[in-house]
Design goal:
By secondary structure, this protein is α/β, with parallel strands linked by helices. The chain has helices at 12-25, 41-48, 69-89, 104-113, 128-133, 170-176, 195-208, 240-246, 256-264, 282-290, 306-317, 331-341; strands at residues 3-7, 31-37, 52-56, 94-97, 117-121, 139-142, 153-155, 184-188, 213-217, 231-234, 249-252, 269-271, 296-298. It folds into two domains: 3-159 and 329-341, Rossmann fold; 163-317, 3-Layer(aba) Sandwich (Rossmann fold), CATH 3.40.50.
Amino acid sequence: MKTIILCGGGTAGHIIPNLALYHELKDYFSNVIYLGEKNSMEEKMARDAGIEFLPINSVKFDRTNYLKNFSVICKLKKYVNECCSILKSTCADVVFSKGGYVSLPVTLSAKKLNIPYCIHESDLTMGLANKIVANKASVVFTNFEKTYHGKKHRPIGIPMRRDLFCNISQKDLLREYSLPNRKTILITGGSLGAQKINDVISLVYRDLTKKYNVIHLTGKGKSTKNCAHGYKQLEFSKEMGKLYKMADLTISRAGATTIAELCALNKKAILIPLSKSASRGDQIKNAIEVSNSQNFEVIFEENLTPQSLLNAVDKMMDKEITRRIEYKNPSLEIAEVLYELTLK
């Protein structure tokens, strides 16, 4: 009986690829266990997917006040020891990490116990948690070729959920969602929502709905009283495949998973990356990397205004998709690599 440990959390971008990979892992491993923080997004999503979940403690490094990180390191040592006990008790054979601060005690404990582990980085630049443990990883999977350099590097793309590839017609889906039969815009700020995007949409949704349907994913706890014919507001959806299928244009943040989904589904999009003041700048780099594609228009957050968004929507609606991409899901290849590591 082989056991694999999954970890990664904080945002859906660190969790969804693990859930997509789960379908393939079940064919190779008797036990698939997800480690993450208690009462977290990863706990809810893992349990909803039917994956066994075990809670752990984790800490996040402070990027603004480095002095605070001395206490963080002390706590991290304690949490690594706690994870060592979990890996021993579960008889873990291999660990797969999607990054995020919650993954660090898990991968460090695997390193300490000499349990093979692999990491996956979706962004163009590697996140801190992955960067810390990359040197001893058995394989460093990445989405972008430029992300990592070394013998262990394997650029492979991002595992995606099967339900993203919806085979229901757009017309039938518009009827299901009680929307008129016309072009549709999907707006999403990621799993946590994006207040800056929501604020601008509140100013332009009436202009947009004069010509288009608007499906607006606001994020949990961020719903508004906006109401108009052809405007559908949801805090969150488990039916992203259907929403993407309806969308003629998507307005979104520039998370690597979202961009990969848009490319795989051959969708046009306006990307509004999270500003560097609120992140390490990974979304900006992701957006710049794909900005030369005719299928993407980028508006940096400091340039986002009602008028700049309306102009971009009209521009992109008139564009044809320039090239069709045949998506190859890397989940099977990743699962095979992980299983092979347990045989060594």
